[in-house]
Amino acid sequence: MAKAKKPKNEEAPGAKTTSENTGAKVLHQKLFLSIDFKKRQIYGHTELEVSVPDIGIVGLHAENLGIESVLVDGEPTVFEYYPHHQNSETESNWNSVSDPASAADAAAMEYVGVLKREDTANLLINCCKPSKDLSEQLDNVTLENGSQSSGEAKQNVKLIRINYWVEKIESGIHFDENIVHTDNQMRRARCWFPCIDDEYHRCSFDLEFTVPHNFVAVSVGKLLYQVMCKEDTSRKTYVYELAIPIAPRWVSLVAGPLELLPDQNNFLISNLCLPYDISRLRNTMEFFHEAYSYYEDYLSANFPFGFYKQVFLPPEMVVSSSTLGASFSIFSSHMLYDERVIDQTIDTRIKLASALAKQWFGVYITPESPNDDWLLDGLAGFLTDMFIKQFLGNNEARYRRYKANCAVCKADDSGAMCLSASPSCKDLFGTHSIGMHGKIRSWKSGAVLQMLEKQMGSDSFRKILQKIISRAKDPSNPIRSLSTKEFRQFANKIGNLERPFLKEFFQRWVASCGCPMLRIGLSYNKRKNIVEMAALRECTASLDARLSVIGATSDSENRDVDVGWPGIMSIRVYEIDGMSDHPKLPMAGDRWQLLELPCHSKLAAKRYQKPKKGGKPDGAEDNADAIVPLENKASIESPLTWIKADPEMEYIAEIQLHQPLQMWVNQLEKDGDVVAQAQAIASLEALKQHSFSIVNALNSILTDSKVFWRIRIGAAFAMAKTASEETDWAGLQHLIKFYKSRRFDAEIGLPKPNDFRDFPEYFVLEAIPHAIARVRGAEGKSPREAVEFILQLLKYNDNSGNPYSDVFWLAVLVQSVGDLEFCQQTLTFLAPLLKRIDRLLQFDRLMPSYNGILTISCIRTLAQTALKLSDSISFEHICKLIEPFRNSDTILQVRVEASRALLDIEYQSKGISSALLLFKKYVVEESSLRGQVKLCVHTMRLCQIAVGYDSDDCVDTVSLLDLLHLFKSHVVFNNEFLRHYLFCIFQILAGRPPTLFGVPKEKPLQLVDVEACIEPKNVFSVPEAEAGGPSLLALGDAKGKSLDVVPFGVPARSQEMFMPIVSELRFPEPVAAYEAQHLEPHMESQNQPLLENPIVNEIPLDGEAPREELANRDVNPNPPIMERQKEPDVASVSVSHEVKKSVIRIKVRPSGATSRAEGSARSIERSQGIVVRHDIDRGQTSSASVDAPQRISTDAVSISNQNHVEEVNSCHDVGSRMTASIGSVKFVSEGDTFGKELQCTAESGKTSASQKADNNIQIAAPSFIPVDHSMENEAQQKYASLQTLSVSKERDKKKDKEKKEKKRKREDPVYQEKKRLKKEKKRKEKEMAKLVSSTSDPAREKQIESVVAEAKKVEEPSNGAELVKVETEAEPSAEPSAEPSDRPIPKFRIKLKSKAFNNS
């Protein structure tokens, strides 16, 4: 039965609707602004209907604002305003920054701190009667208080009026020339009006903007009216109303001399731009009403906001190419194109359709929490894909989805790509949607939803989207938020998908990271007429990355869990007589899968024997290489033509299918699917050796006009890669021949005038010069024919009589020059090529091309050529040539490209440090936000090159500090994209992934001063006890003040007990002397703390004695010479209470060979054991010590404390006896399954009975807690013995738990299936081990038997109160062990058992 749902705004996890603003909720907001363009001022007031919490304090966000007064219900009130930006540029303590790692830590700490501060309300308004000072009222409340119920909120609604003006019009809202516009960045609505600036806090708006009468003010919602001002008739007020609640971020405004262009087919659509762009706007928007109507028809609903407005501004004004608002979108005018431009059409239409789709899913339907952002992003992407499929063709849609899936598979290798998980969404503050990571996440979201559509069908998926929209339009109970859980319910009820499948699907694809990576091989069994297929399934993300998402550790238990994906992949087999699908490849279970696919076609022997009876092959086969006859023979002996895995793209998977060459050729030539053709081209191009059959197949695709034009372009570039001396430059010759057959005059041998009426042919021919420029010879240089051909095209280009522009055509030709690699023979063509480029550059200055495309390509080519020919071309000359294009009067695209080129030259000539300093200079000089972002992205790529390139070029401290100061400046605060990319630069320089995921949210240790590193604040530490000092170990804080130790049994303040782990051990002299002979090199770990700072574990009070884990300690390579030596190799477990008790110490001391093998394992286990000092008086003790048998294998054997070590810690009563056994020492190999227990028993000198533990005792105290010697012996009886507490009780509970677990597993069909697969896997491993063991030598088996014999020798200890030490050592083997690859690695299982005895 379904539970009653809570209100959305209160239930959403991670949504800061009420937590960050003292529980207040804005019900409605009115905004009145007056814009003075002459004085460049914005002033006015806002009125908010606020549901005030009981505390009477309302917290709002405000930045860059001057608050004049605040009134509550018409009466002035007290308010406090704390602008964040005023303290943003204060000097920071960056003295410890000396390398990229420390700089990255400083940037991360600064970035996270700023993001947290921005989530905090900084305008606090007292909505109660000001009986006392506001600061006194705030003492009893914090900004993280809980929210009220909806019933309480309605009882206390106040009207708050805030009179203010905008102090700094540089963030959130901007003045550019005579245009005022907003940028709609995250957390920047507060920069132009006070509000609760949270994406998950929504309210309705009334907006009034007063501007000059000849200007137009465009904003969100419906335009109610426009009226002339009474006070000033030269000004006009525009009044808008938006009844649908939205987040303040989606409130947009553009005011200026805009030209309105209503849509001729739909009066609800309005397009605006500056007057000089009106003709391009008219041509661009001819199609848009079709996309608008298609979305309404697909979703069976009208556009939710009624009117839709689109404004196009110059690129210098916008921060990105598209900016969203409610019923309002702002675009860059570079997307507009006239009727003569071809290349910009597809990109512009897709971007406009995508922005319209996000109005439906993202602005109107909003995510319920940060973990649901992916769903709305994916639904908008899915709707855009439906538009592409409808208006640009199914081939375009499938090709784009295939390329997006390939990009996702390559990038989805870390937890940052997880779509919905608390670490990857809530703690990222919205930064996961910025940059390339955001684009990859968006592609993955759309692909996941398309996978669901494949499972349930297109009609069912469409009904789900219609249901989401219809319930949001319900006037009685509108629900405009959507969660992942609700979408799963829709998929179950409407899509008819089973709940177990949906649970596994969302857990694997949405709540985790990584994509399947399949390696598939096949062979044809002629006798059985089947295809035998072997598949290996892997994951693009590592195990540690997958575990980091769920917060698990990479222990052996998690590593044994096989990672799979729900469902079964289909294999499509194409045969001579037809095609058949085989859904037989499971995506879960065993990683190795062996499949048998039956064939339906049968070979006719006579039919294929006739070619063999013929004579020798004709002369046409003389040039064919030796592979061709083998391929013909394979095709004759097999009915297979080609095979496809996952033909319908039901998985986001990287598939590496290994099939014969002829089958790839058949797939390329005969399969009409664009995805199959693209896969075939990629596979043929990746081959190490290219035969003539590959070149001929690619050429046939290139010349076939019926093939999709993007596939033809891919074939052209693949043919350029196959061109080499081994194939007699056949690929190059075919490319030149094809181009000349389409574009050259056969009579005169020169290019004909351009004719671009055939768009697919235009795109293919445009890519041919670029492909030819990539042809390389044996030494990596371009052939002479390629250089001459490109020079000829540049020289004789003629666009007369062509109705379309050739600007993109020429840009590709110029860019092809930059792709050439000149040698001594072709260097003579460099001068005429540069002369042509200079002529085009000068011509474009006089008559600028569309968006400066030609100038951009010329600058890029000059820079590339100078970098390649640095010995022949002076950098200074090129820089002087490019520098003038950085003038402020140059258009943004050209200015940014010139800066990019100069940054490339600076990096190549002087290194990354100099390039970073130049980048900072350019960013400060760049006035546009978009230009700053583009420069930062380019610098980030340079840093990736510098880090990936193995060189000694390191970033100096001066450059790092300059970037840190830039990172904290107000210039970066104004541009959230620039700030995020700067943070990514620091991460890349430190060798870390460019994302906020995984970045520690606390202060890193590297940034603390040296003194603070020794004794950091807020960390409990145990000072080192001097030799012969008192047994009381005081806990001290960072200032050296002693802290009172909480007595055992008394709850701590935080209801938790801090159990320090001493990082150092001191042993008695006999033990230290013995252990000093077996010290091994210490395995250093970067993650280990300093010895002066012990780790502090917080252990909750459970009411039972905890089970501590046995840990082997590392050894200091250079132990100090002192009275008592350190011995980290021995793990001591000791527990006592406030009375002096007998203590049992269990020591497992590995031998020298063992400690070397377990070096890496001990570094992980160090934090799990509790180790105490041995120079403390504890009274009578009993101790047992055994040596583990010496290992034969040279490899380390991992020992899991959780699975194989059963260990207990408790106070051991006087007189009881305890047995520690090392049991089940097994060498797992074929034919060797044996084990023997090593036991040792130690007795104390007195007798006591075992009793039950007192209920008040919740946890065992560490042995270094001071003991009271005056306690009577009767107090000892209330504590449990080692046997009763830790063995009997724990064992009984464990047995009951195991019984329940076994019963549950017997009833679980999923577990039974996994168990069956596991048995099958073990059976296969056993068969493989038999094959390996058959080649093993007898000497190795004798060594194993000798170790087992030594393991059987155990000395019995004597009774008494003195310390008894029983040692059993295995003699080292006489001969070195064989190589590890000869036999399977032996595995050890160590089990400690305890038994209780009472002496009578």
TrEMBL record:
**UniProt xrefs under InterPro entries:** Aminopeptidase_N-like_N_sf, ARM-type_fold, Ig-like_TAF2, Peptidase_M1_dom, Peptidase_M4/M1_CTD_sf, TAF2, TPR_TAF2_C
Domain Transcription initiation factor TFIID subunit 2 TPR repeats, first and last residues per copy: 663-964
Pfam families noted in UniProt: Peptidase_M1 (PF01433), TAF2_3rd (PF25316), TPR_TAF2_C (PF25577)
Cellular compartment(s) = Nucleus
The Transcription initiation factor TFIID subunit 2 Ig-like domain, residue ranges: 513-660
User: Which Gene3D superfamilies does the protein's record reference?
Assistant: Neutral Protease Domain 2 (1.10.390.10), tricorn interacting facor f3 domain (2.60.40.1730)
Disordered, as annotated region: 1-21, 1105-1134, 1281-1388
Q: Which UniProt keywords apply?
A: Nucleus, Transcription, Transcription regulation
Grouped into one coarse class, the protein's main location is nucleus
Which residue intervals are annotated with compositional bias (Basic and acidic residues) in the record? 1288-1299, 1338-1356
Q: Which SUPFAM superfamilies match?
A: ARM repeat, Leukotriene A4 hydrolase N-terminal domain, Metalloproteases ('zincins'), catalytic domain
Which residues lie in Basic residues bias regions? 1315-1324
Limits of the Peptidase M1 membrane alanine aminopeptidase domain: 285-476
Q: Which domain of life is it from?
A: Eukaryota
Q: Which CDD domains match?
A: M1_like_TAF2 (cd09839)
Q: What family is it from? A: Belongs to the TAF2 family.
**Could you identify this protein by its name?**
Transcription initiation factor TFIID subunit 2
Q: What does UniProt list as this organism's lineage?
A: Eukaryota, Viridiplantae, Streptophyta, Embryophyta, Tracheophyta
